[in-house]
Amino acid sequence: MFTLKNDELVVAVLDPQTDLDRCGSRYCVGGYIYQVTDKAKGDLFTGPQYPAPYPDVFDGQGAPDMFLANLNGDTAPVGGEVGIIGVGRVRRTSPKTPFSVRDNPEVIEFLPWRVTPGPNSLLMETKQTFAGWSYHLTRLVTLMGRTVYSRTEIRNVGQPVLPIRWFAHPFFPLTADRAYCRLSVPFTLTDNPGYAIDADNFIVQKPDFNWKAGHFQWLHYEKTGTTLTLVERHPTLGEVTTVTDFMPDVLPIWSNDRTFSFEPYFVRELATAESAAWSIEYQF
């Protein structure tokens, strides 16, 4: 793994060449933040199987992200190939529709990445041409003080429209009071078996739910402004603040008995020669 360090934090980022045993068909391989460790207080992220030393690559750990929209998934036959942005070529092994990497874990070939280390950053770049689509993708992870920045930039260099449906999936540890995140904009929850909102406007887990199975839930929120701040309760730090430089198009949450996560989505369609860039930062 690559590491970024200062006097307080260590950021572990997967090496897209030597850490492929920790990668699968789901998460973007370049720029995969596998852990952030406080030198005085220990690991700050978890995961659905944490502290397993080798969690299932679909679940992963830390603060990964994913390009959900795939290339050719709707038309590829069973046994055919699907392009996964930031991952590579994936075998369609399941007839289930719509195509999902959950059901199709076999990576035929991972993308090659060029890595450029800096004094406090890691720049990772790749490109892919698949079934007519073509793009150039850049990931930049930077450590500044107690803030970790993750920036993504993608450019469509092919002819077809390039579908972008990206989301971050940071995994935070659970708290004793089961209180987790609140948003900088007004939000609500529909009636559901797993979550409620407490008097401090934090989302909480209902204690009588079967959390081993996990629960996924969409949030309803006001899409005002151009950024979003999420404050996450943390058992060792008190709070962690996450800031996106975009207003998420959709925002679900998910948790189980080991971790809690929110998933801010960035959704675009890029025409030929168009590009998009966005970032998320974690303030510890």
Shape: globular
Specify the helix fraction band.
Answer: under 10%
Low-confidence stretches: none
- Radius of gyration from the CA trace? 18 Å
Question: SSE order in H/E notation?
Answer: EEEEEEEEEEEEEEEEEEEEEEEEEE
Kindly estimate the percentage of residues that lie in beta strands according to DSSP. Answer: over 45%
Computed structural class: mainly beta
Which strand order do you get reading across the main beta sheet?
10-11-12-13-26-22-21-15
What's the end-to-end separation, in Å?
21 Å
Q: Quick check: average pLDDT?
A: 98
Counting DSSP H or I runs of 4 or more residues, the number of helices is 0
Count of distinct strands: 26
What oligomeric state best describes the polypeptide chains here?
A: single chain
Query: Mind summarizing the main beta sheet?
Result: 8 strands, antiparallel
